[in-house]
Design goal:
Elements: E1 4-8, E2 21-26, E3 31-36, E4 45-50, E5 56-60, H1 62-71, E6 73-77
């Protein structure tokens, strides 16, 4: 799988692609929420917590997200609501 963002619609029965991380945009704070087993560091990347599935949870600036999408595979869930 090539590096980049892979979007999917679970409401249409699409399966989540196997990617290195998953992302969801939080428009309230203007940052991306990233979940991954990888350890991320760098400008615009802030560790938040380890989630219930033992993945690292980060908040990432839009600029840092663009750089991550060039280096890793990222799945993004798109909902209709």
């Amino acid at each position: 799988m090539k590096n980049g963002i892979y979007q999917y619609h679970p409401e249409l029965g699409e399966l989540k692609p196997e990617c290195q991380m998953s992302a969801r945009y939080n428009s309230f704070i203007g940052k991306w929420a990233i979940r991954t087993i990888l350890e991320l560091k760098g400008q615009g990347i802030k560790f938040y917590e380890i989630d219930s599935q033992n993945r690292n949870f980060y908040y990432v600036s839009p600029k840092a997200f663009d750089k991550l999408s060039m280096k890793y595979t990222i799945s993004q869930e798109l909902l209709f609501n």
